[in-house]
Putative restriction endonuclease domain-containing protein
Amino acid sequence: MGAAREYGLDEQYEWPRPPQGGWTADDLDRLPNLPPHTELIDGSLVLTSPQTAFHSRAMRLFEFTLLDQAPDALDVMREMTVKLDDINRLEPDVLVLRAGADAGPRDTCYRSADLVLAIEVVSLDSKARDRDVKPRKYAGAGVPHFWRVEEDRGLPVVYVYELDPAVKAYQPTGIYHDKLSLTVPFPIEIDLTAINRRRP
């Protein structure tokens, strides 16, 4: 039995074949029928599994709380891709960027230079990417702040990192349970136990 039939696909369907040297960041806008939230890492397409309830609620908590607390010079988005270079286009779960980064309503990605904070909520299928690959990519592109969010008994635990620009690598600055309190990139207070509330 062919792979297409095994997964309920039409036998005539063909998966996109990468060109010599792999895909480029701009190809994500041109390839037909890509699943939502497809990323590009080192020229390879990365497809994601369906989100868990924890993942979705964690994104909502951080998006709404950060949007409420961010200064006017910053904006908050979720699940928008960031072009780090020609062969890497990642999609943070939540991102804080400089206000005015939008080129227009049809934008599909942002530049890494506009990104202030990238937040990744770890899923079962994304552990290696979120714990190792993505932080290295964000740091290499000069993104100043990175948070990794893990689930512990239904609540988020936030691992906070800050870029050391001299070595283009993140340094851990804290692990937060129950409450997140920071002064950078702006004053932030988040009740992590509010993840299941409709309004944090």
Summary: Helices lie at 3-6, 53-69, 127-140. The chain has one domain: 53-196. The radius of gyration is 18 Å. Residues 53-69 form the longest helix (17 residues).
